Structure prediction request, 430 residues.
Amino acid sequence: MPPHPRSAWRATSVAQRTFPNLDGDRDTDTLIIGAGFTGLSTARDLLAKGAECLVVDGKDVAFGASGRSGGFAVPRYKANYSTLAKTFGNAMAVHLFREVVGATDAIAQTVETFKIDCSYQRNGHVTPAHSPGALEGIEADVAFLKAHAEDDGAHILDRKATAEALGTEVYFGAYVDGRGGCLHPYDYTRGLASGLADRGVPISVGTSVTRLQRDGDRWIAETNKGRIRARCIVIATNGYSLPLRGAGTLHRRIVPVSSSVVATRPLDLNESRKTLPSLLPVTDTRRLVNYFRMLPNGQLVFGGRGDITGRRDDPDAYKMIEGHLATTFPHLAGIDIQERWSGFVAVTLDGFPHAGALDDNLFYAIGYGGRGVALTSLMGSRLAKMALGEPIPSDPMGDQGFTPVPFHAFRRTGMRIMAKYYQFRDRIER
Ligand SMILES: Cc1cc2nc3c(=O)[nH]c(=O)nc-3n(C[C@H](O)[C@H](O)[C@H](O)COP(=O)(O)OP(=O)(O)OC[C@H]3O[C@@H](n4cnc5c(N)ncnc54)[C@H](O)[C@@H]3O)c2cc1C
Prediction:
């Protein structure tokens, strides 16, 4: 039995396939460590280019954040485009916009190519503003994209229209992008793995890489199931990265932070009429975001910041999320919760994911925060290019300046202080 936690995804999964352990020593061109969105997207692109690869996971396909996420394919970054333009210039902000929209396109294409049964819907994604200042920010985004990217794929809902679309009065307006969407994250991940395996990509689970070392112009990865020789190695372990001999300081460049989710019992007709009538997935603008969506069976899935004390299933984290759910939808206060689960996201100091090289033919992509569903597809494509020696764009998602987080050993204390501060800011800004 795989070691996955209970979740609404596990309870509603239609994915059937299981994957074997590594069976003795192996030789491959590219070894991919981690069978989540990033690792499997890398394998997808390597396969498309006719290159050989092998994917391993210490636990199972979709064991990490990929199988536990909200499944929202969000076509924007956490920072506003207008803010990105101030920091990096208009041209770079437009490039970053095109990259993330391209990433959502890639998901649609992947679902289609591999015929993945994952309830994928692309009707749009809503980013409601938690404060008047946040509303100004998303309004500036729409204006920026029109003026500089000649794009009108996003629009603003005023306060009344937002309340009607979401079934809640707590927001000041919303940014809606029709290119966003959502999927069943566990079935998407396992469906992609299954499609890759059908096309000849070996995927080995229960296979934990414990050490990387060079052997001439090859790498040797030691695992609990055997040794793997490879020309190239891709590390795709994100929030589940532990210190790995041979991978230098990678695990110290991010802070793993728990995100927690609850799923209610299916709503009755009266409740569901009042709750998220638009049925669109929602990720709000708070620093400590709240996100929610309806499942086809009528369950409301509601997530937010989880435990940062190191205890993965801290009841206080769920209590806080259930409190946010009740504030957002007062008619659901005290509703039965059927599932509660958490997973680790990887936070970076600049809010961007990064892909780069640790050594010759040793690459990584890491640090998506809570925005990995779409961006992992982009980073997987970049990793495949890097593995094959092809150029990738030079932008803030590269490895320049991506160094270990200072005082990493004290990260939990730091996160606790930051979380309190963010919570305070989110509250007073209203
Ligand atoms: C609760 C939650 C909700 C989220 N919701 C959203 C959302 O709605 N939208 C969005 O865009 N993003 C969301 N995210 C973020 C998103 O899920 C992640 O950014 C994304 O899944 C990262 O994918 P990954 O493949 O890089 O890493 P993961 O899916 O975490 O996979 C890493 C894998 O590496 C394996 N591994 C680790 N070390 C080793 C080793 N030494 N040897 C072998 N294998 C190893 C692990 O077992 C794991 O399976 C959410 C995250 C969480 C936790």
Observations:
- The two ends are 46 Å apart (CA to CA).
- The mean pLDDT is 94.
